[in-house]
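Q: Protein A?
A:
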Amino acid sequence: MTTAIICDDEPRLAQALQSQLQSAWPDLKVLACGYSGDEALDLISVHAPDIAFLDIRMPGLSGIEVARQTAGSEAAPHIVFVTAYDAHAIEAFEARAVDYLLKPVKTARLVETVARLKLLAQPRDAQQAALRPDVLKVLGELVASERKHLRWLNCGQGSEIDVIAASEVLCFQSRDKYTAVITADRERYIRKPLKELMNELDPDEFWQVHRSAVIRVSAIERVRRDEMGRLHIVLRGSPVSIAVSSAFSGRFKQI
């Protein structure tokens, strides 16, 4: 029986991938799930799985560092990276000996990955199982060059957690002890303060326009002035209008 582990710092995504794998590959036995790079190393050492599904960015060691540390050992698994990177960035290592999955994982793409992994299900030695050094080098350079911007948000909704892509967010607004995450369909909440959140957002994609508001630039439909000369942002697909404070009005000086 082929065995695997899954490590992703977003538990809900790790569990979703495990469920998808059960459907796409019933004979695959997922031995354990972890949520950090250090856990991944421990699970590989303890279970010696045939395959490791690793998130690239995790607390502690990254998926790349886990692959580096296990490459060449007798217990080295085949690595499948689970990543939020855009497809064009991944093309840099198309000649890889492993595969990758983009978040959120699509079933059809996972089926392709399973087919590739089944072809590798043969007696292996350390050279077969190890991730090629040249691929690791390319991946390492890619991770080093990527800015560590927030791509996903876990928003609490009662007893459930909604996983929202940053690209779906229209704006963030301060709400007392919470920050409202506003998308086209609804408003959700996170406990992280807006000031702290700004340090994790891509400044080319998100602009602060008020001490209590941050907007996604591509979501702006228009900016209008009221009778007092104050600026207001109208967002696409939303009735929400965001006031621009004088401290940030310089962003729209062409108006």
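Q: Protein B?
A:
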Amino acid sequence: MKSPWIESLRSVALNVPDLAQAEAFYTRVWHLKVVSRSMDAVFLRGTGADHHLLSLHPGSATAQVRRVTLRARSAEALHLIAQATLRAGGTLLEVPGPLHGPAGGHGLLLRDPDGRVFQVVHGDALHADAGTREDHPIRLAHVVLNGHDLTAAQQFFERALGFQLADRTRVMAFMNCNDDHHSIAVADADNDALNHIAFLMPDLESVMRGGGRMKDASHPIEWGPGRHGPGDNAFNYFIDPFGVVIEYTAEVEQIDNTYRVGSPDDWQWPPGRVDQWGISAPPSPRLKEAQRAVFFAPSTSQGSA
């Protein structure tokens, strides 16, 4: 497996109604750390090497996704992705060139046919003090996006970004670019909203402690604890103060070229189950509503984030 062009998922940029409240939540409650700030943005890192995992920006009455940022394997890959994006029916919003945000490097900005915006970067800053810390996110594990045409969305990721299908269930396509089972997934829906953002925790203990900490802060678990089928990862899902669905996860399955791509027939639960363990209740109605309410902001160019 693996994409020939994309090395990893790096970060997500969000527009939020209240920047100060967002910073307070994601630092004090979610356990990220401010690594940089500007007049109109806050950049938050985990304990891993990525410069930042989340950037927060003011300017909308409701939460919006500005972009999802991926890291390219090489500078040459940026130009190959630019060409492939156009062939796949996407739009180049910014051609490959220097980036001026705090992470630096070079990058491009593209929009897929359904309005989702992606930045692809190379040569961005990395932290030398990468490590793990109990109950703190390391990096992003994956982003799940809704798709009103799941097959078309899957094909765009394959053709424009070199992702490969790891598993296909009745309602989701799990897309692979590195050793992680999936870095992006597309959920079958009647819209193209953000479904959720998953943050990788050091271990199962941290996923569970995070659930207790969020509950103490009046953010109850909306789905979980449980263990998924595709990806084999443990999970707890929550809703942030602005309606964004966020997940703590751990133990994501690592795969290679010997992995057999699964079909919907391979991923069917017995009646009453929604995860491998069989202990989790179904996702809450509140979670299901939130998973279809946060959309990508209209974009022509939004600067570096």
